[in-house]
Amino acid sequence: MTLKLFNTMTKRKELFKPLKDKQVKIFVCGPTVYDYSHLGHARTYAFYDTLVRFLRYSGYKVTYLQNVTDVGHLTTDTGEDKVEKKAKQEKKHPLEIAKFYLEKHLEATDRLNLLRPDILARATDHISEIVEQVKKIIENGYAYVTSTGVYFNIPKFKNYGKLSHQKPKELEKHRIEPDTTKKNIQDFSLWQYNPEGQLKWDLEIELDITNKQLKEILGVGSSNFVE
Predict the structure, then answer these.
(1) Least confident window among 38-42, 114-118, 126-130
(2) In which band, very low, low, confident or very high, does the pLDDT at 221 lie, cut at 50, 70 and 90?
(3) pLDDT tens digits for 75-111?
(4) Domain 127-220 belongs to what topology?
(5) pTM for this one?
(6) Cβ proximity of 116 and 52 under 8 Å
(7) Which has the minimum average pLDDT: 70-74, 170-174, 217-221?
(8) Range list for CATH 3.40.50.620 in the chain
(9) Residue closest to 140 by CA, chosen among 48, 209, 62, 213
């Protein structure tokens, strides 16, 4: 049985061919656990649940991964972490907030009879890997350090926006007030310095291109893909 999926880059339905025969890896952007899930979450995960079930029914070995953003979802470029903001409102520790709302999210998806992912990766469980990735991006010249954090330098990456078909001017539009320390208004945060935050990792990172050492808190972002 064949499967056609919509290719965002080509804007066409195309025959699905995995990179490795009968092995499929699916990464789906999971919840930011600072509040209850809503109907939009249900729609997203119901779709991927259907896809995973169909692929397994068709004889594929599927590895289904979702991340959990339990730190790093900021209200603005240099603003407050959403989990920490909720923690202040409820007078609890941020990780207590994250644990509670992740459990509620999983309860909701269970009630919808959605398969749980094979791997549920919490951002706070993978800080060391995130640090190494950010360092590598800086070393390769695609990110830079400011007094507020580390930013991805979009103009340096010539194909940025190719997948979504966004034009450079569209990337300059902001829903939030941009950080004035950025080189370009469209650049986005990879790592934020937040001395007031409750969630911190005391990490000294030597950045050769800046000759500085920073102790900062990470921000994490992601998207969906099928391999």
Answers:
(1) 126-130
(2) very low
(3) 555 567 788 888 889 898 888 989 999 999 999 999 9
(4) Rossmann fold (3.40.50)
(5) 0.79
(6) no
(7) 217-221
(8) 4-125, 127-220
(9) 209
Tokens of 82: 């959403």
For the chain, the three-class secondary structure string (H helix, E strand, C coil) is CCCEEEECCCCEEEECCCCECCEEEEEECCCECCCCCCHHHHHHHHHHHHHHHHHHHCCCEEEEEEEEECCCCECCCCCCEHHHHHHHHHCCCHHHHHHHHHHHHHHHHHHCCCCCCCEEEEHHHCHHHHHHHHHHHHHCCCEEECCCEEEECHHHCCCCCCCCCCCCCHHHCCCCCCCCCCCCCCCEEEEECCCCCCCCCCCCEEECCCCEEECCEECCCCCCEEC
Rounded Cα distance, 189 and 35, in Å: 23
- Which two structure tokens, joined as six digits, stand for 169? 């001017």
- Does the domain made of 4-125 have the CATH classification 3.30.450.20? no
CB 9 within 8 A of CB 47: no
CA–CA separation, 169 and 186 (whole Å): 9
- The amino acid sitting at 202 is D
* Distance in angstroms (rounded) separating the CA atoms of residues 108 and 114: 9
- What lies within 8 Å, CB to CB, of 106 at 6+ separation is 116
